[in-house]
Specification:
The protein is mainly alpha-helical. About 55% of the residues lie in helices and about 0% in strands. Helix 1 runs antiparallel to helix 2, helix 2 runs antiparallel to helix 3 and helix 3 packs across helix 4. The termini are far apart.
Length: about 180
């Protein structure tokens, strides 16, 4: 690794130290501010070791920061956004999955999917394997939410008894309404 970077007026020759200080004062974020501080010290003619000691950064980090300033200019104060890994499902595949999920599971009358079922659909239809935990993230990103069906209490009466109670309740409501009208 070559450590001979320009310093003083040779470092960022198109930018004045006054401009670097102005940018430093205006900057709100910590890391870009620290990078600008390195550039200011280098413009003042300080060595990499002095800058590393002053900023409490490693020598290599200071060197890489200053090297980026030489390559990219003042824009080097901001880091470049990394793209990251491309998604396993394309936009078209996600739209198809949303359509399929909105139809509901064919064998489940509640209309609710489990993550295992969704994971299996993704594997069968699109040939993509997802971890169980990531299926949740994918569903949330597509606008779905966690829903659970109400469980039936073990002491709840049979459906016939509930229906007869509702009929009797309706009769009592009619009697009460008649009394209120008189």
């Amino acid at each position: 690794m070559v450590w001979n970077l320009p310093k003083g007026n040779d470092f960022l020759p198109d930018v004045s130290i006054r401009e670097l200080r102005r940018l430093y004062g205006e900057e709100q974020k910590t890391k870009p501010k620290l990078r600008l501080l390195c550039a200011i010290h280098r413009k003042e003619g300080r060595s990499i070791d002095d800058i590393a000691g002053f900023t409490n950064m490693g020598r290599r980090t200071v060197h890489e920061t200053l090297k980026r300033f030489v390559e990219r200019g003042v824009e080097a104060k901001d880091s470049i956004k990394q793209a990251g890994r491309p998604p396993k499902l394309t936009e078209k595949q996600r739209r198809k999955l949303v359509q399929r999920l909105e139809q509901g599971p064919p064998y489940n009358p509640s209309g609710l999917w489990t993550t295992k079922e969704v994971r299996e659909i993704i594997r069968k239809d699109f040939g993509v394997k997802y971890a169980h935990a990531y299926v949740w993230e994918l569903l949330i990103a597509m606008g779905f939410s966690l829903q659970r069906p109400r469980q039936k209490h073990y002491k709840s009466p049979p459906a016939e008894e509930i229906a007869s109670f509702k009929k009797r309740l309706q009769c009592w409501q009619n009697i009460i309404e008649k009394k209120d009208l008189q």
